[in-house]
Request: fold
Amino acid sequence: MAKVYKKKRGTRTETPALPEKAVAITDQSEVIPVAWELAEPICNVEGMELIHVEYQQEIGGRVLRLYVDKPGGVTLGDCSLISSQLGDILDLKLGTDDSYTLEISSPGIDRPLSKLPDFEKFKGQLAKIKIARPINGQKKFKGILSGIIASSVQLKTEQDTVSIPYQDIIKARLVNYDGDNKCL
Reply:
């Protein structure tokens, strides 16, 4: 089961001056790369791998969700540790007054696949992939990961093997992954 640590962030009553080197976020798509850049070194120092970052509107408001993992799995204490180190840095560096909930979570059984090497690392595992541009009229695929060829993910479906350009992948997750992480 995934461990999740949540904390409400960015709720300010007045707008402070932006600190030096803050990124004034005017486009919400800028949040993910900035959060990734700030979180990855913190995770590395704590012996964890940053797996995936999401920033989206949900029923309760905006959520900035980071998935982290480490050998032996992630505890709630690990999630809390990353949140406490990262929260104030994000508030300062994002330079936004928008309220959001910061969630630090373990990847769970439907582990996200974000980086190209993940698709090689989890070769042989069942995955679901959603893409931006259809291949043979299809945008959603489910199959066994069979590696990478020239920046394209190879996925063996029930019908055939599909070559999916990495840059076209919108979302990818392992399905019912048992956590036997041979890579970490």
About this structure: The first helix runs from residue 31 to 45. Confidence is low (pLDDT under 50) at residues 11-26, 180-184. Strands lie at 4-9, 49-58, 61-69, 100-105, 126-135, 138-149, 152-156, 161-165, 169-174. The domain at 116-174 is CATH 2.30.30.100 (SH3 type barrels.).
